[in-house]
Amino acid sequence: MSNEEQLVTITSQDGVGVPCKKEAALLAGVVKNMIEEEDEDETNITEDLKLLKVTGETLKKVVEFLEHHVDEPMETLSETPLQMTKLGECVGPEWYVKFADIDREEMFLLVKAANYMDVPPLLDLMCLAITMTIMDKSPEEVRGIFSKVNPSLAAPPQAAEADVEAAA
Amino acid sequence: MSIEALPQGVLSTILSFLEKPKDVADCALVSKQFYDASSSDIVWKAMAQSIYGDELANETLNKYDGNWKAMVVDDNRLGACPTLFNIKTSAWKHNGIATHLNNSSHYYCTIPCIKWDRKNRIVRVYIDARGEMDLRAPVRSGIRLRSDDGCSQKDTSGQRFVSELKEETTGHYKGFICYLESDIDPSFHDVSNNTKGKCTFCYANLMQRSWADYEPVELFSFQPNTSMKDVFSNKNGKITYTSYKSPFTDETEEEKRWRFLKPSVRNRKRPSAWWV
Predict the structure, then answer these.
(1) Which residues are B126's β-sheet partners?
(2) Which domain does A140 fall in, by range?
(3) Which residues cross the membrane (chain B) (predicted)?
């Protein structure tokens, strides 16, 4: 059986099993490790891929991304930092721009999942999407966006303020 | 879930996509976590490499003891010069006509680039001047800042000429002429207060009067209220940086610079003086 037709099921923290092409699942470092370990034991690889830190909803999005990435890879960024202010100008193809058009809460969950599951392209895409939301914003506005900041932690050292101003 | 729940490495990655140092600075003021994330090398390395180019940034990192942030905060004064590339020629005029037009006599000064050396607060005008044996020395080459309305102007002579030739040859000068930064900065002289203007260079002539016997060439033009930074920025506000190294290492560039001469002149053999 070729890899493309093989399916694996990844199970989320809350017990939701999401089927995924094996080839796509291998893009996620954490799944790849699990599969490779199991291969050594010669057990059935379609079982027991449980991710303890990812919820079912997020996992579905991640799998959607992985499977699409297999068919149509995301174009990597040529240059950082960005010269552009729209996601569409620095990420292609179009599918990924639509994929990233989600609310901020979901973005954070996906970033966290991508970081945990070790999926660099997804991590890049989500980080970029978040970067777009804080670009050209004042500290107060950014604080507003991420409004759960504890005010007592919000005051930065004075020296830092001075040298970052010099940089600007 | 808030952004605080993200691992710090991820937050640094997010900030590393920001283009302007100012944006990163703003984010550093958001919270302690943002401040810590913004101090990460990932952020400043990406910033430095995008401003100065990967190669120049990596090469000059040792001047800042491996500290990327220090490099950006200092705008890499120690390792990077804002540079304007000007492949232009100040040619000797014979009876008022530039010699490359009639090829009667042969004295030319090509200018591959000018570099702003912020460490020493000077501007280096790189020249490659070639001619017959009596080619005059470059140090007295004049620079003129002049507003377009003609109301104000300032003439300046070179301070020093630094040769980059391995041995002295008659009829050939190659190296850079140093001008004080303050002599070239349009905002320093009220030249650019309300009007735009030009900065021109004339080989071996202190003043660019009508009797100057070399063709003046434009080094740059400037808009009202221009700072030195603006002078070295392109239309998109981006500055091209190069290292402090000599620009005279690329032979194909060199050939390109002299291509305007007819082959009969370029390849002319002259005892001891004519070179190309």
Answers:
(1) B176
(2) 3-153
(3) none
CATH 3.40.50, domain B3-73, yes or no: no
- Cα–Cα dist B125/B116, whole Å: 9
Q: Report which residue type is found at A151.
A: P
Say yes or no to pLDDT of B229 above 80.
Answer: yes
The CATH code of the domain that includes A38 is 3.30.710.10
| Mutation site for B-interface testing, chosen from A110, A111, A136 by largest number of B Cβ within 10 Å | A111
> Is B26 within 8 Å of chain A by CB?
yes
Cα–Cα distances (Å) from B177 to A68, B108, B114, B125, B233, in that order, read: 59, 16, 10, 5, 22
pTM, rounded to two decimals: 0.75
Chain B: residue whose CA lies nearest to A105:
B1
Residue B126 and residue B128: Cα distance in Å, rounded?
A: 7
Total domains in chain A come to 1
Give the tens place of pLDDT for each residue, B5-44: 677 888 888 888 887 788 888 888 888 888 888 888 888 9
Inside any domain, residue A161? no
Residue A153 to residue B33, Cβ atoms within 8 A: yes
Residues 6+ apart with CB under 8 A from A154: A143, B30, B31, B32
Instruction: Quote the CA–CA distance of A108 and A126 in Å, as a whole number.
Output: 8
CB spacing of B30 vs A149 below 8 angstroms:
yes
Phi, psi of A139 (to 5 degrees): -55, -40
State yes or no: pLDDT of A166 exceeds 60.
no
> Which two structure tokens, joined as six digits, stand for A132?
């777009």
Domain segments of chain B as ranges: 3-73, 81-266
Q: How high is the ipTM of this complex?
A: 0.72
In the numeric block, which tokens belong to residue A17?
């099993």
